[in-house]
Design brief:
Blueprint: H1 12-18, H2 22-30, H3 46-53, H4 56-63, H5 80-87, H6 91-98, H7 115-122, H8 125-134, H9 137-140, H10 150-156
């Protein structure tokens, strides 16, 4: 397994997923001994890298691979949806995640940010609007550990 891990725990599979290299991702996923849930130094898995890369088709390849932990949380306490909305690169990935039973809109990260807070941090207006329409009123006015609501963050960059 030593040959798969590079600096800070970023594997070649993670790099290919981030860069949207579907053929390389498929090749690595077929390899024996590849840990699809390996984490880098931040606790991000290949799923997070596929989300951050923003290529929907690459993301789907990873999402649909058997053994991929779809409920994984990184060291910031963020899940797949939070990663997708703070990154803001793919509305299609966000829409997909919102339809999945694994998605929990009530989850908070280590700083008590909800997915809506994370969307506000990401600053993508379309994604913020989409999440705002999915959240209940309590989530819209929830405060993080600094006392900021998602709207404070979005409008004032707190």
């Amino acid at each position: 397994m030593d040959g798969f891990v590079e600096i800070a725990g970023v594997t070649p599979l993670m790099k290919h997923a981030y860069n949207g290299r579907r053929r390389d991702v498929r090749t690595w996923l077929r390899r024996r001994g590849v840990d699809v849930n390996a984490t880098d130094s931040e606790g991000d898995t290949v799923l997070f890298y596929a989300i951050a890369g923003g290529c929907f088709n690459t993301f789907l390849i990873v999402w649909n691979h058997s053994g991929v932990d779809k409920t994984v949380v990184n060291k910031q306490g963020r899940d797949a949806l939070m990663t997708a909305v703070v990154n803001g690169r793919s509305k299609k990935i966000v829409e997909f995640l919102l339809e999945q039973p694994e998605t929990d809109l009530t989850m908070v990260d280590n700083e008590r940010n909800t997915a809506l807070h994370c969307a506000a941090i990401g600053g993508n207006t379309e994604i913020c609007s989409l999440l705002f329409s999915c959240c209940d009123p309590q989530q819209r006015t929830a405060t993080n550990q600094e006392g900021n609501t998602p709207l404070h963050i979005f409008f004032y960059g707190c």
